[in-house]
């Protein structure tokens, strides 16, 4: 098969790494890719959001199957366009991608189908939103309704912080069209986890759980980011909890989306809070997580590609996956200044030395090649991933590889996996 992966981040490197290993894959392309993906696939200079360009490339190069990585092209309808052109595609339709494209849609959907989630209200008027926050008090959560590149959520610990978040979206227009409507919801107390399931429109196949680290600094301090590291499997999601998540959240979602005439095909990524009363849905994403994908793929023993094809073709009912009995941990290396202003173009050296650490894979996110040099080209730049028998051992190997990399222009957290290791 001739396969195209769409995207340029660490998630797409992990997917390319897994798909490229499949005996079904004869030729792998990635649009637009990055310096690391270039070792797995032929990178083509077409942006992930360039829907016309992606369709044109897929038709012109005899692509048999497209795997869409990021959310923006899914919400914009890339899967629909490719399928209309006769090209099989992994990823939900535009109407199914509303689960990520609109926080308000998802909250209303959860209410209708009795999927456990926090209490909420939707607002299009600033004054009404401010009055609601003053009535409810803090802590409280303020979310832009639409896609905001992971930056549209404020977990406000004070009323003042919540009011400022409302003004950011509705007065300062910080998130553009995504913030015209906002969702204000109950603050949930517990331990966060990410849970993934492949879906074929009728059935769901669990892919397991991971836990990421959103805040930029050690000890979960500082502003939220796209994710500074992750590990899998998380102790917060033992087998019994995974069964509850499938039964109470994932399976009702698949049935509900089918009933709504929006059958969901692709990967459902449930952002969860594991509370004393059980799992509660924080939000849905309609694609693999980043950096969670970087810890799921190394743990997968089965060939990924047939599973993705089965999700697209409606064949998951009798499908099964096998997993390595290993833990995986990913440390994200980011450009100095991230998640605020940062500079591009600094050189990253000694990546070969890092990759030689046993059981380590260095996934590239924001990189580009400059001849023989590798340059930083984004905020989150590398995902240094290790596998081992325990999370503690995987962390030791990952940081050994991090320390082998010579990159004065970057930094990382030094405590990835702390919750799991503290539990022992």
Written description of the protein model:
The chain folds into 4 domains: 2-91, Rossmann fold; 125-180, ATP-grasp fold, A domain (Dna Ligase, domain 1); 191-313, ATP-grasp fold, B domain (D-amino Acid Aminotransferase, Chain A, domain 1), CATH 3.30.470.20; 327-423, Glycinamide Ribonucleotide Synthetase, Chain A, domain 4 (Alpha-Beta Complex), CATH 3.90.600. 31% of the residues lie in helices and 29% in strands. The protein has helices spanning 10-20, 51-60, 71-75, 78-84, 98-101, 103-113, 126-136, 159-170, 239-259, 292-296, 304-313, 351-355, 391-404, 418-423; strands at 2-7, 27-32, 42-43, 65-68, 88-90, 120-123, 140-144, 153-156, 182-186, 191-200, 204-212, 215-217, 221-224, 229-232, 265-275, 278-285, 327-335, 347-348, 360-364, 367-370, 373-376, 380-388, 410-411. The strands form 5 sheets. Strands 10, 11, 14, 15, 16, 17, 19, 22 and 23 form a 9-stranded antiparallel sheet that branches. Strands 3-2-1-4-5 form a 5-stranded parallel sheet, sandwiched between helices. It has a 4-stranded antiparallel sheet with strand order 6-9-7-8, sandwiched between helices. Helix 7 packs antiparallel against helix 8. The N and C termini lie far apart (44 Å).
CATH class of the largest domain equals Alpha Beta
Residue stretches low in confidence (pLDDT < 50, at least 5 long) are none
Helix content: 25-40%
Percentage of β-strand residues: 25-35%
Cα end-to-end separation: 44 Å
Q: For the CA atoms, what is the radius of gyration?
A: 21 Å
* CATH architectural grouping of the largest domain: 2-Layer Sandwich
Q: CATH superfamily name of the largest domain?
A: ATP-grasp fold, B domain
Helix/strand-derived class?
Answer: alpha+beta
Mean pLDDT: 96
The biggest sheet, with number of strands, parallel, antiparallel or mixed sense and barrel status, is:
9 strands, antiparallel
> Got a strand count?
23
């Amino acid at each position: 098969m001739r396969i195209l992966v769409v995207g340029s981040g660490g998630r797409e490197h992990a997917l390319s790494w897994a798909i490229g290993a499949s005996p079904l894959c004869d030729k792998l392309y990635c649009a637009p890719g990055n310096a690391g993906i270039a070792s797995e696939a032929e990178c083509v200079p077409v942006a992930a959001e360039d829907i016309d360009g992606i369709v044109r490339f897929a038709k012109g190069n005899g692509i048999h199957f497209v795997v869409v990585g990021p959310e923006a092209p899914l919400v914009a309808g890339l899967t629909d366009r490719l399928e209309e052109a006769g090209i099989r595609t992994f990823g939900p339709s535009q109407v199914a991608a509303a689960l990520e494209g609109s926080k308000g849609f998802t909250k209303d959907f959860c209410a209708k189908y009795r999927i456990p989630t926090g209490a909420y209200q939707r607002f299009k008027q600033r004054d009404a939103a401010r009055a609601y926050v003053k009535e409810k008090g803090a802590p409280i959560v303020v979310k832009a309704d639409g896609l905001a590149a992971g930056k549209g959520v404020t977990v406000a610990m004070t009323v003042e912080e919540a009011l400022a978040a409302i003004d950011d979206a509705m007065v300062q227009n910080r998130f553009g069209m995504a913030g015209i409507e906002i969702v204000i919801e109950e603050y949930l107390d517990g331990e966060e986890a990410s849970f993934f399931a492949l879906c074929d429109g009728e059935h769901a196949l669990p892919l397991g759980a991971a836990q990421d680290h959103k805040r930029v600094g050690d000890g979960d301090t500082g502003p939220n980011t796209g994710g500074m590291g992750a590990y899998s499997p998380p102790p917060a999601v033992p087998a019994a909890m995974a069964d509850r998540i499938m039964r109470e959240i994932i399976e009702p979602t698949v049935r509900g989306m089918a009933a709504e005439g929006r059958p969901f095909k692709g990967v459902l990524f449930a952002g969860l809070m594991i509370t004393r009363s059980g799992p509660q849905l924080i939000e849905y994403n309609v694609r693999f997580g980043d950096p969670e994908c970087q810890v799921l793929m190394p743990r997968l023993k089965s060939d990924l590609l047939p599973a993705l094809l089965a999700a697209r073709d409606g064949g998951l009912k009798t499908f099964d996956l096998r997993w390595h009995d290993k833990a995986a941990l990913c440390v994200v290396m980011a450009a100095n200044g991230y998640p605020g202003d940062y500079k591009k173009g600094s050189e990253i050296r000694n990546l070969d030395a890092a990759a030689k650490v046993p059981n380590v894979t260095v996934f590239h996110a924001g990189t580009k090649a400059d001849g023989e040099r590798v340059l930083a080209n984004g905020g989150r730049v590398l995902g240094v991933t290790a596998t081992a028998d325990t999370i503690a051992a995987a962390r030791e190997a990952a940081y050994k590889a991090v320390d082998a990399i010579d990159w004065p222009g970057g930094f990382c957290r030094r405590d990835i996996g702390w919750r799991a290791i503290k539990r022992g």
